[in-house]
Design brief:
binds iron/sulfur cluster; 12 helices; 17% strand; 294 residues; Rossmann fold; two-stranded antiparallel sheet
Length: 294
C-alpha cells in the first residue's frame, strides 16, 4: 500500500533565500499544499522556471525541476510535456520573465493549449535586479528606471490570456494562501493551458503594491452576486479590465475563464496514446541523421 502523500514530501533540503516577508513564500506554501492535497507524488511533477527571485522555486519544492534561461520557462515546460505527457508540468516565473522577455512564448503556448500550469509571480517590477519597471508596473509608479513615474500602459495578462487562447485563466493573491492553494489545485487539474497570475508583494523594492494594498482591494469572484460565469468570455474580459477601469481600487481574484479544448498533446498522433519516453528506440540507428547535419 502506498503511503499517504503529505506536504512534508515536498519540502526540499535547500532553504529559501528570499527576503523575509516576500510574497514568494506564500506561493511556495500554497504550491506544496496543492500538490499534496491532489495526491501527486513528487516524482510525477516537474517545475520549470526562468530567471528571477520567483524562478528559484524548483530549488525549494521537492519535485523534478529545471531552472533555465530568462523568459524561457514555457518552452522548456512544453518540451518536457512533449517527451512525457504523463507528467504534471508546472512553469514558473515573474512578470518580467514571462510578460517581458518571454512574451512570445506565452502567446504561442496559449494558442497551442499544452496541458501546463503557468504560475506567474507578478510583483510588478524586476526584483532580482533591484527594482526596475516591468511590463505590469502601474502607471505613474516610480522605480529605478522610471524616476518620474511609469508612462506606459501596463500589460494586462488576464485579458491577454482570455483572448490568446488559454483555457483556464485565473488570478490569486500571495497573501491569501488558502485561496491560492484552491486556485492552484483547479489549475493543475485542468486539462489544457492554465494561467495563475499571482499578485506577489515584493517587500524590498515595491513600496506601492504591498500586502495592505492588495488586502484592501482584492475581492473573490466566486463570492460575487450575481454569480460570475466562468464560461462567459465577455464577462471574463469585463472583469479582466476592472483594475484598470477603477485605477486599481478593485482587483478581482479567482477563476475568470474556463473552457474545454483539445490539448496540443491530444492532437499529435505520435504521442496521443503513448508518451514519447515509452517508445523503444534501442534498435533505431540515428548515425545517418547526425552525418547529414555535419
Ligand atoms: Fe522577494 Fe522582492 Fe526580495 Fe525578490 S527582492 S526575494 S521579490 S522581496
Amino acid at each position: 500500500m502506498m503511503a499517504e502523500i503529505t506536504v512534508m514530501d515536498f519540502n526540499a533540503k535547500e532553504r529559501p533565500q528570499w527576503c523575509p516577508g516576500c510574497g514568494n513564500f506564500g506561493i511556495m506554501t500554497a504550491l506544496r499544499s496543492a500538490l499534496a492535497e491532489l495526491g501527486i507524488p513528487p516524482h510525477m511533477s516537474v517545475i520549470s522556471s526562468g530567471i528571477g527571485c520567483s524562478s528559484k522555486m524548483p530549488h525549494y519544492v521537492r519535485t523534478y525541476g529545471f531552472e533555465g534561461l530568462h523568459g524561457r520557462s514555457l518552452p522548456v515546460a512544453s518540451g518536457i510535456k512533449l517527451a512525457n505527457h504523463k507528467l504534471n508540468v508546472i512553469a514558473e516565473g515573474g512578470d518580467g520573465d514571462g510578460y517581458g522577455i518571454g512574451m512570445g512564448h506565452f502567446q504561442h503556448i496559449m494558442r497551442r493549449n499544452y496541458d501546463l500550469t503557468y504560475i506567474v509571480h507578478n510583483n510588478q517590477l524586476y526584483a532580482l535586479t533591484t527594482g526596475q519597471a516591468s511590463p505590469t508596473s502601474q502607471l505613474g509608479m516610480k522605480t529605478k528606471t522610471t524616476p518620474y513615474g511609469v508612462v506606459e500602459t501596463p500589460f494586462n495578462p488576464i485579458a491577454s490570456a482570455i483572448l490568446g487562447g488559454a483555457t483556464f485563466v485565473s488570478r490569486a493573491f500571495a497573501g491569501d494562501t488558502a485561496h491560492l492553494k484552491e486556485i492552484l489545485k483547479q489549475a493543475i487539474k485542468h486539462r489544457g493551458f492554465a494561467l495563475v497570475d499571482v499578485m506577489q508583494p515584493c517587500v524590498t523594492f515595491n513600496k506601492l503594491n504591498t500586502y495592505e494594498f492588495f488586502t484592501k482591494r482584492c475581492y473573490k469572484l466566486e463570492e460575487q452576486m450575481p454569480k460570475h460565469d466562468i464560461g462567459d468570455r465577455g464577462q471574463a474580459l469585463e472583469k479582466a479590465f476592472e483594475p484598470e477601469k477603477t485605477n486599481f481600487e478593485k482587483i478581482p481574484i479567482g477563476v475568470f475563464y474556463k473552457t474545454e479544448r483539445a490539448t496540443y498533446e491530444d492532437t499529435l498522433p505520435q504521442i496521443k496514446d503513448k508518451a514519447l519516453v515509452d517508445y523503444d528506440v534501442s534498435d533505431v540507428d540515428i548515425s545517418g541523421a547526425y552525418e547529414d547535419m555535419i
